[in-house]
Amino acid sequence: MHETDRVVVSPGETADLFSSSFPFGTETEDGMGCSPDGNSGQFTVIVETRVGGNQVSSTYNVQYTGSDDMTDCEVTITEV
């Protein structure tokens, strides 16, 4: 899936989602992303369901180390 705002996942199915941007990209103007000096931040994932309009969200800390290039950057994500 590319440039997608919504993904429909039917019961019993799974979907792997990937991002080439925040929080998984090179350092941005607002400071997030990979940096040789290390960098950290936080992001929230929100999942909305069609069943009863339920919404589930989780917040994560992200730590970047090693490089300003994603191919050499170590990204560590932990749930808050």
Indicate the percent of residues in helices: under 10%
Return the domain count: 1
What does the average pLDDT come to?
Answer: 77
Query: Helical region count?
Result: 0
Describe what you observe in this structure.
By secondary structure, this protein is mostly beta strands. The protein has one domain. 0% of the residues lie in helices and 34% in strands. It is built from no helices and three strands. It has strands spanning 39-48, 55-65, 74-79. The protein has a three-stranded antiparallel sheet, with no helix packed on it. A hairpin with a 6-residue loop joins strand 1 and strand 2 (55-65). The two termini are 27 Å apart. The relative contact order is 0.20. The model has no long low-confidence stretch (mean pLDDT 77).
Helix-strand blueprint:
Layout: E1 39-48, E2 55-65, E3 74-79
Antiparallel strand pairs: 1-2, 2-3
Describe, in short, the structure shown.
With about 80 residues, the chain is mostly beta strands. Helices cover about 0% and strands about 35% of the residues.
List keywords for this structure.
80 residues; mainly beta; three-stranded antiparallel β-sheet; 0% helix
